Structure formats: structure tokens, C-alpha cells
Amino acid sequence: MWNSDWIDEYTRAVLLEFTVYNQNANLFTAAVIMFEYLNTGEVVPSHQFHSTKLFHYSTDFSIFVAMCEVLLFAFNVAFAYIEWKRFKVLGKRAYFSDIWSYVEIIQISLSYSVIGLFFQRMVSVNSVIDDYRASNVSSFISFQTALFWDSVLVYLMAFLVGLVTLKSIKLLRFNKRTFMIMDTVKQSKGMLLSFMFMACVFVIGFGHFCYLAFGKVLSDYRSFLRSVIAIFNFALGTSDFPGIEQAHRVLGPIFFVGFVFIVSFCFMTVFAAILDFGINESKALFMKRRNKIELLEYIIGKFKTIADKN
Fold first, then answer.
1. Which of residues 113 and 278 earns the better pLDDT score?
2. Contact partners, residue 46, CB within 8 Å, separation at least 6
3. Secretion signal: which residues (predicted)?
């Protein structure tokens, strides 16, 4: 490549990009292989592979999937209308005083964002496929734009599904025992915020240390963000002590011992003490609290209401 004038002393990186398609599995795989030239003369390789199904309606269940998508759209319209009516009935002050109202607004926003991104992804995929067919396989067509919208759509759908799943917490209001968790957090929220602030300071400090000390040798610490992720995995018990020791014979063991002592012993002990304080305070509230309504009574009441209307 040097002799063919592909690269010279001003080259910053060399990228190899290609896309393959598996017809049996209906999978597109876009690959990007990069060789980055550092100022020190070192070449750092990296790669990224993204596999996804860009042909949305290509199975025997296409009609069923389309019907479910139409039902989802209809549900979102109805849900948004019901929430708007609730806002008009309660008024601005009462509506926004309930924390679940914010959850509903976020859910509606994410739902319509997913619908919009679904059509954006479809348009992008069709455009890329049309360009590929028009080129008659004589030129390279990048699928990165279509894959980008596909990734954004998947991420938003993940947030939406997670949010809807967490809304099941609303059912906890039917039993006073479940309020102990909320009461524990409320009673110790000041200390928890201080603890989280100190934990963030230590994580940022350890992240910078790992990035500067091990980033040139270990791929897990090649950037600050990846260093922070590796530190969280370290705290969960996934450690690479041989790799750290090999990266630096002195700083590696020092970091390992210091991190284990500070996180596993100091931080966990303080966190457990804060929760113990909150639990003791919430026990007094637990004895005074009464169930507003039992779940079984609530369900029976709903059925009676429906039966009376019929």
C-alpha cells in the first residue's frame, strides 16, 4: 500500500468496509475494520461487526406482524387520547404532581418516536437496496446509514419495553409491605446521594488511571468510556488481573489491591450501613401504614363495574 501511494506519512487511518448477506438467515452483516496510526508510529487495529435483519416483512408471519404493528399504533393513539382527557379532568397542577404522569408522557413520546423511526428505517433500507440494484454490483454501496437507523430503533424499543415493564411497579401500591423499599430509599436518600457522588468521583479517578496506565496495551482500557465500563465489570467480579499485571508489573497489582479494598470493603460496607439505617427508619412507618385496597378487591370491583354497565 505504501508503494502504491495508498498511504503516506500523513495517513491517519485505513478502513476496510464491506457488507455480506446470508439469504438463509435473512441477515445483513456490515463489517468495518480499521487500522489507526498513532503519533508514536504504532498501528492500533480495531473492528466493528453489525448483524441485523433489514428485510422486515420476509417471513410467513409477515401479515401477523403487520397486524400487531397496526394494533400497537391504534393502542398508542387511544392511550394518548386517554392521557389527554385525564390531563383535562385533573388540571395542570394535579396532573403534574403525580410522578406517574411523567412516566406516561415519556412512554407516549417513546412510542411515537419508535413509530417514526420505524418508517425512517424502512425508507433508508429501501433507498440503500435501490442504490445497490441500480449499481449492478459494480460499485460499493455503504449500508451504514440503514444500520444506524436500525440501531437507533432497537435502542428506543429497548427503552420503551423496559419502561413499560417497570410500570408494573404501580401494582405494588396494593400491598403495604412493598412500600418498605420506597420508604427505605426516602429515609436514606440524602446519604445515598452523598454516597453516589463519592462513588462517581472514585470511578472517574480510577477510569482515568486505567486509561492512562493500561490503555496502550489492553483493549478494554483503550478509551475512558471503555475503562469505566471495565471498572464496573471489575466491581461485579469480572477481573483480568493477569492482563493488568502483564500491562504493568508495578501499577497493575497496586491498582488491583487498591480497587478491591476501596470498592469491595469500604464502599460496600458504607452502602450496607446506609441501607440498614433506612430499613430501621422505614419499619416504624410500616407499622402505621395500612393497605389502601387489596388487589383481589380491586379486580372484583372492576368486574362488577363492567357487569353493571352491561
1. 113
2. 33, 34, 36, 219, 222
3. none
Domain ranges of the chain: 13-52, 62-171, 185-288
How confident is the model over 89-113, as pLDDT tens digits? Answer: 888 888 888 878 888 899 999 999 9
Residue-level pLDDT at 71: 92
- As a whole number of angstroms, the distance between CA 220 and CA 231 comes to 10
Q: Which of 35, 36, 30 is nearest to 48 (CA)?
A: 30
Which class is 185-288 in CATH? mainly alpha
pLDDT, tens digit (0-9, with 9 covering 90-100), for 141-181? 888 888 889 889 999 999 999 888 888 777 666 666 666 77
Start-to-end CA span in the chain (Å): 80
